[in-house]
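Lab notebook, bench 4. Still working through the backlog of constructs that have no structural model yet. Next entry is a single chain of 472 residues. Request: give me the structure tokens for it.
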Amino acid sequence: MAGASSSSGGSRKYDVFINFRGEDTRRCFVCHLYQALKQKALDTFIDSEELRKGDDLSELLQVIQHSRLSIVVFSKNYASSTWCLKELVQILECMDRQRQIVVPIFYEVDPSDCRKLMGSFAEAFAKYEPDSQANIEEVESWKAGLTRATGLSGWVSKNYEDDFKFIESIVEDILKKLIHISASKTDGLVGMDSHINKIDSLLEMGMDDFRIVGIWGMGGIGKSTIARAVYDKISPHLNISAFLIIILKVKDGRTLVGGLNIMRERLGKKKIILVLDDVDNLDQIETLIGKKPSFGGGSRIIITTRDKKLLAGFLIYKPKLFTTEKALELFSQYAFRTNKNSVCYNAISRRAVEYAHGLPLALKVLGALLDNRAIQEWEYELEKIKKNPITFLDNNIGRVLWASYDGLDECQKNIFLDIACFFKTKYRDFVTKFHESCGFFPHNGLRVLVERSLVTVSICGELEMHDLIQEC
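Model written out:
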């Protein structure tokens, strides 16, 4: 059976790698364990029988290196396979170097037999005597590996009445371990814990209702990143999960829909987590989940969009721009990837951060632009951006920020440009009367601009616009 498709996130391609003796467990225990892990949406690798025909183990060893957790299934004839033993040594090396989690399972064998090389394990190692083809040092590494692996906290089949309960307990434990890893991955994402906590309060995963939560905000604020972090945290708990990036469109704006009706039918009443990322029209939502979604109780759908009106009737979370300190933290991650930050860069770093105005995408792009450059070069680049920002934005932030603008009609574009050029900080009532005299339908136009996150209205009624949007 081939491994599952790769998962996202760095160099880790699989959630779980299963190391096992095929003739003992492939068609019974391991097969059922593999299916149970897949049911929890865990990308799990088990090798095919064809893969073991030959002497080249390199492919399997690479898979181990790209897995987050390894399960080692010790069985009666485990030690008679040099492949199993070589994989075990590699797994333990990954545990040391990459902090990979290792979970030993003792299937119908006594853990002490593995650890002390008794019974079938003693018989297997008797074949690896000096006169055999096995390398003495390699055999010693196998023995050391068995001793070490069997000393780890694991699972013993003899403690359970049947395989079903045994597998159920193992999968639950693995989920908890992987969720802990996923939670720790958000440590490097500035401000992510706060975002996750606030969205958690809207999702209320403990409730058995069906719920849709929208993440709404301007381009570059980090909507997709937040949605991915929430998804990674929640998805292992549900039957089925999917993260869909809405990019399949044809010229007339219709979403490509092949196979989606079949997908919805198969999902039926199952409890799911689904993310629709970067949605820009209602047809996309209705095409993907239907006008009247019928997913199982406890299901959650997260929608990210720049257009607030698409989230009418749903709970909405709007990420805020970074404070100066958070902005500096994110900027520094990108500006000082090559060289460590030094005191002499503090003042100019604050200048750069001020220009980005707390927008995560702008901070990342600016940081990457200035990485590994001398202060004089920073001065030059910032001055160039200040004088001609559109040159800087064309191939970087501009594509994201202008996406909201592209969907406006001509009246709405005229209102937007007037605000950008003349009416920023002016009162809404004044601007509305002006555009009424021009025949631009400002009541509708301003509403659309606010919904698209291109313009905001202060508590005092003043029209505001992010500087980066204005300079585009």
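Notes after review: The chain has a mean pLDDT of 81. The first strand starts at residue 14 and ends at 19. Flag for follow-up if needed.
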